[in-house]
Structures are given as structure tokens and as C-alpha cells.
Amino acid sequence: MKQTSVTTDAPCWVELGTDDPPAARAFYGELFGWREDDGARPADGGYTQMLVGDAPAAAITPRYAPQQPTAWTICFAVADAEATAARIKDAGGTLIKEPTDVLDHGRFAVAADRSRAVFILWQAGAFQGAGVFNEPGSLGWVELLTRDPAGATAFYPAVFGWSVAPSEHYTQWGLAGRDFGGMLVMGENFPPEVPPHWLPYFAVADADNTVNRAVALGADVLMPPYSMQGGRRIAVLRDPQGAAFGIYSSGADVSADI
What we know:
Number of helices: 4
Number of strands: 16
Oligomer: single chain
Order of helices and strands: EHEEEEHEEEEHEEEEHEEE
Helix content: 10-25%
């Protein structure tokens, strides 16, 4: 991920919706060293920011609707939520929740692409988004898993203006070629009941040690640590509440300039 700060039309935040927020906070606190923001207010409805040091890294929330899965959701920074929502509709996507103010924090909308992969739009107010990227315990990559790669490569550039860098096995998303994510085509190894979705990858210092620690804390391994070109290792896990997430390591320094 060649991103070190919030950038318009790029990932800016990630949220976990779960039936057991206290257990999730304990799990990720042990795994990533996150600590809870002690400034939560009753009006936030159980929404808890998790910090790396003093920087906001992610949020853990209750599920707010029966149809909401236990899952991580990626937020993308936008300059104008209404204008982006209009582009989503024009490109064949769906607005699950129209743009709405969240106190003084900002304005958000919940959307789905043509294949129903869900994501969030975030128009910042007092809250910009993550205060850290590509450092251990913070967002390091985002990946769309879909059965409709052609639809996705038409949809997301139309909505966000992303650049697309295709290859034989993997497509990468970026802004003017500065890649922050990718797309994986869901093949026969994915059960049909698994819907298209966005998957966050969190940067870690050591993928193998993190996998071992996650298993000891009750997680399942969906993809064991795998070495990529350049020596980076990735893995995919499922937390004890059932939410999938990835981890990503590239040695001691996992940051890169945008």
C-alpha cells in the first residue's frame, strides 16, 4: 500500500461489525496491540475506535441490522458523499444507506457494487479517518473478492477514478498508478454462499508469528502464510466471531511513501 495518510478516493478507515464487541476488542487488542479509545460517548451507540499508539486504526461496533454480517467493512474517503452516491447509482451499484451525518464526525453512506460487495463512503468532518497506515497493527492493503471482475473493473474507476493494473492472476487498484488494493476472482474454492466482499489486510512485523498468535487466541487460518514476489508474506484469518481479515508483512519497515 503506497499510502501513508488519508487520500480522497482511497481507503481511509475500516470497521468491524460483530455480535460480541467486547470479545472482538480483546482479540484484536491481543493480536495487534490495539487499545480502546477512552473518549467514546453514549451517543456513539457502542461504536469504539481502536488505537495504535495514539493514532486511530479501526473501529469495532455492534451489528446494527439483522441482515448485517459479522464482517469487516472498508471505508473510502470522498470529497462529496452525494456526488459519489450518484455515480454509484449511474454505474449500476446500490445505495444501502443514503448519505447521513454522524454527529460532527462526518457524513457517510453504505453502498454495494454491481455484485453486492458492500463498502462505505466517508466524507470527513471532524474525523478524517485512520491516523496510521502501513505500520504494524494498521491497514496495509484492501482486496475485492468478486465473481464479476469485468463488472468491477468498469464500476470502481467510474465511481472513484481508480487506475487499474491488470495481470494474469491479479488486478491492482490505485490512484494514478499508486496502488492501494487489488482484486481476486472468486473461483470454485469459494463456497457459493460466500458473497463478494472487500477484505482488509493489516500490516504486521511478522506474518508467521501473527498467525500463530491468532490461532492461540481462537482464530481459524483460511490461507496459511504465503510468500509473494519481493519476500512479502500474507495470510488470511477468521477471528473467533467469524470475520475474515488478512495480514501482510514486508520486513521491519512496512511503510512506503504515497
